[in-house]
Amino acid sequence: MSVRRVIPLTFGWEDLPETISIRGGDPTVRYREPVPGVLLQIDDGWLLLDTGFNTALITDPALRHRFHGDPAIQPVLPGPGEPLAEALAGIGVDMADIRAVAVSHLHNDHAGGLKHFAGRVPVHIQRAELDYGMSSPPGPESNGIFRVDFDDPALDWRVADGDTEIAPGVSAVLTAGHTPGHQSFVVSLDESVGGGGFVFAFDAADLTENIEREVAVGGRIGAAPEVSVAQIRKLKLIAADRGYRLVPGHDPVVWPALTAQLSGAVTSA
Ligand SMILES: [Zn+2]
Hints:
Blueprint: E1 5-17, H1 18-21, E2 30-42, E3 45-49, H2 56-59, H3 61-67, E4 74-76, H4 83-91, E5 98-102, H5 108-111, E6 122-126, H6 127-133, H7 139-142, E7 156-160, E8 164-167, E9 170-174, E10 183-188, E11 197-202, H8 208-212, H9 225-242, E12 245-248, H10 254-262
The site of zinc ion has 4 residues, from loops.
């Protein structure tokens, strides 16, 4: 069986300038971008793609000063509690039914919720990403990758070197550039629910504009703009080949629309 249901989640938002998402963008234009996650229903439960913020680093004033002190990029939490718990409660999914997690990359808006899964389930990541995340400071932290989010000996890493299948119907595709080991995901729906699928770019393409204009993301760690554009083209080819929809990671219009579209769209349990 491939994937039987796809549920987009929103773990909060980020207020930031266009230049973060669009190379050469207007620094005076600001967006409130959603912080995405995706739940995929697989054979024996759910696979979660990305985990949102580490709330403690936002709600504790001293930690916030250290980790989110840049006024240009500010996190917005969706509610008073843990965004992951609130998102799961909102759709009636039990945290205990999440069987595995995969992270696109280790930026704080994607890896901050890994603390919920330490000692519990396998966590899929690219080797280049984990190696960079564990590398000496100040590089990772100065680039928005906070070691406290994932440097936990109880995390059960499943490390990949390039493109790989992580569950039936779910493949990781190495799209390095935004970060050294960024991965995107190709999700194939089971024929029993109509087939088809999605390519979730995550931060290989923040916005529809990245995809349509083939313009690099603004945030890149040690990668030329051409590398980002090549990854966008790679994802567009995969999507076109399979007839799947390519979904940008942080689009303020696309993400809520897709969430609304997929809510209740598939009824199989
Ligand atoms: Zn990122």
